[in-house]
Amino acid sequence: MKVKRRWLYFILILLNIPLGLATRWAPQYFPTIIRVYGGDVFSATCIFFGIRFLYPLKSVPKVALISFLVCIAIEVQQLYQAEWAVRLRNTPLGILLGHGFLWSDCVCYAVGTLMAAALAFLLEQINYFRN
Question: Any stretches that span the bilayer, and where are they (predicted)?
Answer without folding.
Answer: 7-26, 32-51, 63-80, 100-123
